[in-house]
Amino acid sequence: MTRVDTVVAGRGLPDRADTSRTGVRRVIGSWPGPWRRGLVLAALALALGLFMMLHSFVPNQVGNLGSLVDTFLPWFGLGVPVLLVGALARRSASAAVALLVPVLVWLSLFGGTLGGKSHSGGDLMLASHNVGAANRDPAGTARELAASGADVLALQELSQEAKGIYEKGLAKAYPYHAVQGTAGLWSKLPVSDVRPVDIRMDYGPLAKTKQAEPRLDENRTLRATVKTDHGPLVVYVAHLASVRVNPRAGFGTAQRDRGVQALAEAVTAERNKRVVLLGDMNGSVADRAFNDITSRMRSAQDVAGDGFGFTWPASFPMVRIDQILVRGMQPRSSWVLPATGSDHRPVAAKVSW
Where is the domain boundary, 60, 83, 114? Predict the structure, then answer.
C-alpha cells in the first residue's frame, strides 16, 4: 500500500527559514534580560572593532577612501564611549561585553603611542614649522622659534612679504640660512649645496584661482647640505600640496601623492648616510600613500615621541601633518612646540649620531 502524506488545510509544512528564525528567537528569549537588550549596539561594537582591525583592506580606488581612513583612524576610537553610553542607557550586558573588541583593537593599534618613548640626550635638535602665509605676527613667530634652541630649523609657506621679517628675526640665532621659493632653512651650522627639488606640482590654472594656496606657483621644496662634526647631513625642507575632501571626488590627494613619490625617489638616490626630511607633508605618515618614504626613513614622533603629536589645525589639532623623518640617525625625543600665529603647530626632535 502506498502511503500518502496529506496537508491539513491552512497548515502548510513549516518553512525552514521560519524554523531557523524561531530557533534564534527561542535562544535569545532564554537569555537573561540584560543580555537580550541592546543587540543592535553589540553588533555595532563588533563592526567597529572589525573595521579598525581590517582598515588596511579599505580600497583607495574609490575617492582615496583608504588613505582618508588611515589618516583619521585614531579618532574612530571615539565610537567606543558613544556606544558605551548607549549600552549603559539600555542596561545591555551584551553591548558592554562586545565593546571589549574595539577597545582591544584600538589599544593594539595605538596603545604604544600613549606610552613614553622619549629619552634624554641627543646630539642635534631639529625643528620644522609651516609659519602660515596668513600669519599676522611673523616677528613673534620668529622670536618663539629662535627661543626653541633648535640647531636646524625648517620653515614652510614663507610669503614674500614676511620673508625679510623671518630673516631679520632669526639672524642672531642662525648665522646660516637659505630660501628657495616658500621653503627656508636656518642653521647654526654651515649650509651649502642648496637647490630646489621638483615635487611635480601641476600648477596650471589653479595658480590663478581664488582657491589657490599662497604662492602656489613658487618652489616649495629645497635640498641642502649641513656641515657637522660627524660629516655632512643632507636636509630636505618640503611643503607638499594640500589635500581636499570633496563629496564628489572624495579625498583629493593626487598632487600631494606625486610630491611624495618625487621625495621618495630623491631620498632613495641620496648616497649620503644621514638624511633628514622636514616639513608640512599634508598627510599623516600612517597614510599608505607615504609607504615609499616611511620604508626608507623613520618618523621621529613614531620612534621617540610621547602621544600622537597632532599639529593641525593649531586651535584644535586632529592630525599630524608636519613631520620630522630621519635616516642614518637615532631619534631620542620628539614633541610639539607651542602654537604661534600660524594654523600649524611647530614640531621638534632631538637626534643622536
Answer: 114
